[in-house]
Design a protein that fits this description.
single chain, 436 residues, mainly alpha, two-stranded antiparallel ribbon, 2 strands, 2% strand, globular, disordered N terminus
Length: 436
């Protein structure tokens, strides 16, 4: 079972995650400087992603277990049909570039292909290391924009028009793109290096603070859900821990304090208080439901990769190809069929990883899958991101019976193998001295 820490076997996964990180940096950081450079960088990230499948002598493996393999093949075939259905938008150079480079475009639908790499190529230490790097990027983004985030920019949301503050709104969720995947890293505290865990946790706290300041309710919910799951993993899976009651109390206090602070007079929470009093998505969703009314085929099959719906909420834009509510985005593109196939695979994986496993890494992965099903009620959808790659890595290992049946002790030996081997000479010398 040493292949879970074998560096050579992990190269394809490292290419895939590096590719999505490059693309994420392009869309959320470089785009603020130049859209052309951002598109070029994003394309470079896409090429790096495909290097995972072009790696020398790569062999693709049958996906998942026998009972779910048919469902996964149906998902892939159906995704291809979604990609072939262009939708209502005209075919132009700009549209093609956007559909290829955008995280909600073609590449977002192709991320499930990572499953064909096989669970034996899922080096969990590679996931830990790249989660650490991703968190560092999120933390550096916050530090470089500290004054704007914590002192000035978020307050303009209370007074500015939407067209003037759109970039400010995005500032509140950019750190989360990089830090949220580290929740799995922190939940796997028994196996990840302490340095990685500290950076991952700090990143989550800082990005949560940023989301609060900008009133990004979805991202606040994402962070709080993961923090509660982290608390569960620490207090309920650690036999030496005596803090289960403390965890429950802290979880309640976190939720109450966030809600209470959001309605306080403190300027730092004015935006969140104002946002809590608004239902900003109901209007968009109403337009969506109105446009889909009386069109059962659209509900069942969706409108294709570039499908749109009538929504004149933005000046100069009558149709939108994205809706922020995750499950509705699935329906817009691929209908209820796509939504059902996706949710079935994630929920079954979450069940197997939580109730049919003997180690805490599988339980942490199951919580990641369950959280992302919950997030469908907000912003989670198929996208070209580290989060989606992590989801499909969790799917692979939660469906792998051999990995689920590994004991905690065996996994610790695998992860600490090099450390144990380095300590053997010292232990042998110590034993020799004692015997002498």
């Amino acid at each position: 079972m040493l292949y879970f820490t074998d560096q050579k076997i992990s190269y394809p996964l490292a290419f895939a995650i590096s590719g999505v990180l490059i693309s994420t940096i392009a869309h959320n950081i470089i785009f603020q400087i130049s859209s052309s450079i951002a598109n070029f960088t994003s394309l470079f990230g896409v090429l790096i992603f495909f290097c995972a499948f072009a790696y020398y002598r790569i062999t693709l493996f049958p996906p998942l277990d026998n009972s779910t393999r048919v469902i996964f093949y149906l998902l892939i075939i159906y995704i291809l049909s979604v990609l072939l259905r262009w939708g209502d938008a005209p075919i132009t150079k700009v549209t093609i570039i956007r559909i290829v480079t955008d995280k909600y475009g073609v590449m977002g639908f192709l991320t499930p292909l990572i499953v064909f790499l096989g669970s034996k190529r899922i080096n969990i230490q590679t996931i830990f290391r790249l989660s650490y790097i991703s968190s560092l990027i999120g933390i550096l983004f916050i530090l470089f924009n500290f004054k704007e985030i914590f002192l000035t920019s978020h307050m303009s949301l209370l007074t500015g028009a939407w067209s003037d503050i759109r970039d400010d709104v995005n500032m509140g969720q950019v750190p989360g793109y990089f830090t949220l995947p580290s929740a799995f890293l922190v939940m796997s505290y028994k196996f990840a290096p302490p340095k990685y865990i500290k950076v991952g946790f700090i990143g989550l706290i800082l990005s949560l603070a940023t989301a609060i300041l900008y009133g990004r309710r979805s991202y606040i919910a994402f962070h709080l859900t993961y923090l509660i799951f982290i608390g569960y993993m620490y207090f309920f899976t650690n036999k030496k821990s005596k803090g289960k009651k403390v965890f429950i109390i802290l979880s309640v206090l976190i939720l109450v304090s966030i809600i209470a602070a959001s309605f306080s007079d403190s300027s730092a929470f004015n935006v969140l208080a104002d946002r809590f009093n608004q239902n900003t998505r109901s209007g968009v969703e109403d337009y969506f439901f109105t446009d889909f009314k009386g069109k059962p085929l659209d509900w069942i099959f969706g409108r294709g990769i570039n499908g749109t719906y009538y929504c004149p909420v933005l000046e100069g834009q009558s149709y939108r190809n994205v809706i922020e509510t995750g499950y509705l985005q699935f329906i817009l593109k691929g209908g209820l069929i796509l939504l059902f196939l996706y949710v079935y695979i994630l929920l079954k994986g979450a069940f197997l990883g939580f109730f049919r496993s003997k180690n805490t890494i599988c339980k942490a992965m199951s919580l990641v899958l369950f959280a992302n099903v919950i997030f469908l009620f907000s912003g989670n959808t198929l996208e070209f991101s580290f989060r989606q790659i992590l989801i499909w890595c969790c799917v692979m290992l939660c469906y792998n019976a051999s990995f689920r049946n590994l004991s905690e002790q065996m996994l610790i030996i695998n992860f600490k193998y090099k450390e144990i081997m380095q300590q053997l000479p010292a232990l042998a010398i110590q034993k020799f001295k004692l015997e002498k």
